[in-house]
């Protein structure tokens, strides 16, 4: 379980606080958003001002909520470009970002700038796409973060620990919404077996 360092109180008019970046990564159904919400709720208990953002592309469940699969929700602001986050973060102490893999590459510099200005930045996102390849900005975010937590799902085929998102419907698109029907979590072995079957089917 991740125990957060203490975030010092910001003195008015002075930037004397150290910020940092946390990344929560993993496959689909691994509990990334639940872990993000857990950390943000703890920050709220500590009376810190929290702002949460998600890419406007991700409107699967509700327009303005970060909603995880077990329906614990927290209010968030959908944004179209990573630059908007800097403008909207304002005086917040903690900035949460969900579904970070859907953001443009600029999100890395945005997170660094927020942390440099004394904010705690918590980023959740898929670390691999449906082909098992590193997903967009996530490898760079993992590299610049102080703290990285990889959470795991359970393989829907064999019950082992899973870190891959296996796509059940044929599509070449990187972004495919409506994930609960379209994907399942798989372990390395079951993921590779599934991918080999798809390749055989295509050729
Ligand atoms: Zn398996």
Distance between the termini: 45 Å
Q: Please bin the fraction of helical residues.
A: 25-40%
- Report the portion of residues in β strands: 15-25%
Query: Would you tell me which CATH topology of one domain applies?
Result: Rossmann fold
Report the average pLDDT across residues: 88
CATH architecture of one domain: 3-Layer(aba) Sandwich
| Low-confidence residue ranges | none
- Output the CATH homologous superfamily of one domain: P-loop containing nucleotide triphosphate hydrolases
The best one-word shape is elongated
CATH class call of one domain: Alpha Beta
The small molecules bound here are: zinc ion
Helix-strand pattern, N to C?
EHEEEEHEHEHEEEEHEH
What is the total tally of β strands? 12
What is the rounded Rg? Answer: 18 Å
Helix segment tally: 6
Largest beta sheet: what is the strand line-up?
5-2-6-7-1-8
- Summarize the biggest pleated sheet: 6 strands, parallel
Structural class: alpha/beta
Subcellular location: Cytoplasm
Keywords: ATP-binding, Cytoplasm, DNA synthesis, Kinase, Metal-binding, Nucleotide-binding, Transferase, Zinc
GO molecular function: ATP binding; thymidine kinase activity; zinc ion binding
Catalytic activity: thymidine + ATP = dTMP + ADP + H(+)
Summary?
The protein has 203 residues and is α/β, with parallel strands linked by helices. It has six helices and twelve strands. Zinc ion binds at residues 155, 157-158, 160, 186-187, 189-190.
